Amino acid sequence: MKELSLHLLDIVKNSTAAGATLVDISLTETADHTLTITVADNGRGMSPEMLAAVADPFTTTRTTRKVGLGIPLYRMAAEQTGGALKLESTEGVGTTVTAVFHLEHLDCPPLGDLPGAMATLIQGSPGADFRFSHSTALGSYCLDTREMRELLGPEVPLDAPEVFSWVTGYLQEQESAIHT
Amino acid sequence: MKSLEELKAIREQMKKQLDIRDQSDSNIRVAVGMATCGIAAGAKPVLAAFLQEIDRRDLRGISVTQTGCIGVCRLEPVVEVYVPGQEKVTYVKVTPEMVPTIVADHLVNRQVVTRFTIGAAEQEEKA
Prior knowledge:
The complex is a heterodimer.
Chain A: H1 4-17, E1 22-29, E2 34-41, H2 48-53, H3 70-80, E3 84-90, E4 94-102, H4 114-124, E5 129-136, E6 139-144, H5 145-152, H6 161-177
Parallel strand pairs in A: 1-5
Antiparallel strand pairs in A: 1-2, 2-4, 3-4, 5-6
Helix pairs in contact in A: 1-3, 1-4, 4-6
Chain B: H1 6-23, E1 28-33, H2 36-41, H3 43-56, E2 62-67, E3 79-82, E4 89-91, H4 99-108, H5 118-126
């Protein structure tokens, strides 16, 4: 994974695969160049045993083969920058994954194409809702698919190509407004 | 600046097209592999290229979906095209540059782009 946004895309797919109907994704960059990425979902959650084992690459729920690399790669990316990964989960309630990155660390991957990653997530799970927020020292913005649904009405699904193009363009503008 | 209000315009525009879309019984499905392996190999820009090309050409009756890992991680990004009444076609090592060709030749004109398929890739590996 060359970009943090690709890691994010990968791990949020775990939330929708766990049956989440709402995923809250927040990125917070502070003045000391620390980035905290939080993904909180209302999916089915994990048992304490699964939670303890999930960062092991040889743990997966899939049946086709015995490896699962999403969480292990994400944890490695965070730890390589001197950051950390924290997993909290309650069965039947949901899971929260918090990752801390030190952006100025030599081994920190670039944030990358965040608008594209978010547009991809929304397009890939049109049945789920996402609340996405990003804040830096320069400002912040938020996009909520529940608000989008209200405006789009029942005629337009969130996976329509027109919606994908709009989300990408909208987030690109929002991103440039909070970065120099 | 783009605003949420623009979504209303998309809604109005799509309402008009809804009738036409319902009549077409030949819905083509494009499935892009978006598991960890697909993402790491560059599936995200491929998915974006399909959606942008379909939006740009204003094509109807094509749905683009994201799917998991089909087990040939070494050939990712993998894209599967389902045309009703025809055998599934699997494209491998797809790049955004290949997408306009697949859209024009296969999705519009129903001609499989054989050189991009898994069959062609396996022939090459044997040679």
